[in-house]
Structures are given as C-alpha cells and as structure tokens.
C-alpha cells in the first residue's frame, strides 16, 4: 500500500478535517492525526498519516496539500516507522484483550 505523511499547522486543523470528511475517496483510506511535538515536530503542527491505494494517495496529494504539505522523505520514513510501530502495539493490545 502507498502512504503519505503531511504536516499541518494546528490552526488549519479544522480545514483539514473538512477536506478529510467531505471527500469520499479520502474518507475511505487509513488516516491518523497526531500532534507533532511528541513525535519530534513543532508544537504548533499536526502530522497526518494516510495509507491507501496509489490512486487514493495521488488524489490526497491534490486535496490535502491545499491545507498541508508533504513531509520531506527522510522524516517521512522515520515517522512511518513510528506510526507502524504504534499500530502494531495497538493490535497486540487488542489481542491480549480478546485472547483466552
């Protein structure tokens, strides 16, 4: 699956939410919003992680970049690893809850 990470000024979070919720193709993709500061970013920014088909990610590039910008490649790789580790930990926790 293709993925993207965007950085959004905190003041534009409401605009971003509107883009994410009003576009059906974007709405159906994996989307994770996190404050940037705990991940090493600026305190007044938010990271948006998106994962989906190549077509959906190209579409997201057109729509989301009206309020956000793509994170540079090196930082994007680092953040991608952090988001995936968080996802794995979450899945493991759910496994513990529902196991015998």
Any overview of this molecule?
The chain is an alpha+beta fold and 100 residues long. It has a single domain (2-98), classed as Alpha-Beta Plaits (2-Layer Sandwich). It has helices at 13-22, 24-27, 54-64, 73-98, and strands at 2-9, 30-35, 45-52, 69-70. A four-stranded antiparallel beta sheet has the order 2-3-1-4.
Q: Gist?
A:
51% of the residues lie in helices and 24% in strands. It is built from 4 helices and 4 strands.
Helix-strand blueprint:
Elements: E1 2-9, H1 13-22, H2 24-27, E2 30-35, E3 45-52, H3 54-64, E4 69-70, H4 73-98
Antiparallel strand pairs: 1-3, 1-4, 2-3
Succession of helices and strands: EHHEEHEH
- The count of domains is 1
Q: In this structure, how is the largest beta sheet organized?
A: 4 strands, antiparallel
Q: Summarize the amount of helix as a percent range.
A: 40-55%
Class derived from helix and strand content: alpha+beta
Strand content: 15-25%
Assigned CATH architecture: 2-Layer Sandwich
Q: So how many helices?
A: 4
User: Cα-atom Rg, whole angstroms?
Assistant: 14 Å
Q: What would the principal axes of the Cα set say about the shape? A: globular
How is the CATH topology named?
Answer: Alpha-Beta Plaits
Average pLDDT: 91
CATH class: Alpha Beta
Number of beta strands: 4
List the uncertain runs. Answer: none
End-to-end Cα distance, whole Å, is: 32 Å
Strand order of the largest sheet: 2-3-1-4
């Amino acid at each position: 699956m293709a993925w993207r990470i965007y950085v959004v000024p905190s003041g534009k979070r409401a605009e971003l939410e509107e883009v994410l919720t009003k576009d059906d193709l974007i709405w159906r993709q994996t989307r994770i919003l996190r404050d940037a500061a705990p991940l090493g970013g600026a305190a007044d920014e938010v990271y948006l992680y998106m994962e989906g088909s190549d077509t959906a990610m190209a579409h997201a590039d057109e729509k989301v970049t009206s309020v956000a910008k793509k994170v540079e490649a090196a930082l994007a790789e680092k953040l991608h690893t952090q988001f995936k580790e968080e996802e794995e930990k979450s899945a493991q926790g759910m496994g513990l809850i529902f196991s015998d």
